[in-house]
Amino acid sequence: xxxxxxxxxxxxTGIGKAIVREFVANGVRVVFCGRRNDEGKKVEAEIxxxxxxxxxxxxxxxxxxxxxxxxxxxxxxxxRLDFGIxxxxxxxxxxxxxxxxxxxxxxxxxxxxxxxWLSMKYQIPEIIKTGGGAIVNVSSISGINxxxxxxxxxxxxxxxxxxxxxxxxxxxxxxxxxxxICPGAVKxxxxxxxxxxxxxxxxxxxxLVKLHPLHRIASPEEIAxxxxxxxxxxxxxxxxVAIPVDGGYSAK
Length: 252
Ligand SMILES: NC(=O)c1ccc[n+]([C@@H]2O[C@H](COP(=O)([O-])OP(=O)(O)OC[C@H]3O[C@@H](n4cnc5c(N)ncnc54)[C@H](OP(=O)(O)O)[C@@H]3O)[C@@H](O)[C@H]2O)c1
Known about the structure:
alpha/beta, Rossmann fold, 7-stranded parallel β-sheet, 48% helix, 15% strand, binds NADP nicotinamide-adenine-dinucleotide phosphate
């Protein structure tokens, strides 16, 4: 993977940040994005200080113009694009489906699902120009199973799998492999948010651990390794799948 170029959305924190670091460890140059400029610039400086060739660009993935700017930055600074990891996501609030506020529903679906589509829309023509590559969309176990209370999140994560499979069929002839990963619970900001929504956060964490047969919550690095492996030649015959990385959660 040395000297290849990746774009990672939502790369300043959690799983995205671990993916940026894993790419860098494999010699890949990375452009990553997020909405918070200070957070992104801090991570850019931190990774450059250990020798990583990375650039942060402020971007809201619900805006096509802003996503296009991230892809253009990869081309201007690194001259090519090989991989896209479409990871930016928000969980939204917890409400019964029939009471869910319409504006929050739209935002959750836009960030998670439209954001992945816009990213693919601008990544794909450039990956075709390099002769092929790989895209990994970050779905969730909530994209495989239903979840009470966060229905737009679950709907968007299911949608990501449909988008992944359709894209894989459409671009196989262009040598672009497109897959999704479906993480179980991972210790990041989004999970802290989920616990915060619970009446008893400590009990909520215990219950969540119990749902995973490996009986623990994943580290962001465990998810990052799966995402980067899917981009590597070791996964050269894998396309159009949604791989659970979930400690056995979805096997039940
Ligand atoms: N943690 C889990 O248990 C878990 C499980 C399954 C799936 N996932 C999925 O994994 C992905 C990463 O989540 P995480 O756990 O690492 O949580 P996180 O730390 O909250 O990461 C989410 C990232 O997305 C960025 N982001 C959010 N909205 C954005 C927008 N509109 N435009 C651009 N960037 C945006 C955030 O940066 P800014 O706020 O700066 O924009 C942040 O860097 C998400 O898609 C999530 O659904 C997480």
